[in-house]
């Protein structure tokens, strides 16, 4: 039996030493430091998208700035025109006072005839 045991032991040792080692085939996947063409295209598309989006944002901001500037100028013009209108209204009030009209009429040689006065309703 000792022969038989030795043969069995030798066979087991040979089997353990002869185990096929897995072959290392170069993988088709990219190495960790390299990008695949699809990843490069996606990266390029993303960069183009960000560039277009940034340009549109800058353009919109410039448009809003210009519009706000125009609005400010218009508000200034409106305030100036309102001041002019108020000054003109004050002048109309001043020039249409009864005392001034009577003084101007006397200066021009006109006389007040109470019988010939007609009441005019104004606004």
UniProtKB/TrEMBL annotation:
Entry superkingdom: Bacteria
Coiled coil residues, start to end: 64-108
Keyword list, A-Z: Cell cycle, Cell division, Cell membrane, Coiled coil, Membrane, Transmembrane, Transmembrane helix
Single GO BP term: FtsZ-dependent cytokinesis
Membrane topology: Single-pass type II membrane protein
Subcellular location: Cell membrane
Signal peptide positions on this chain: none
One Pfam family of this chain: DivIC
Parts of the chain that traverse the membrane: 41-65
Chief location: membrane
GO CC annotation: cell division site; plasma membrane
InterPro entries: Cell_div_FtsL, FtsL/DivIC
Region annotation Disordered: where it falls in the sequence: 1-34
Keyword presence, Metal-binding: no
Family the entry assigns: Belongs to the FtsL family.
Physiological role: Essential cell division protein.
Protein name per UniProt: Cell division protein FtsL
Organism, as annotated: Bacillus oleivorans
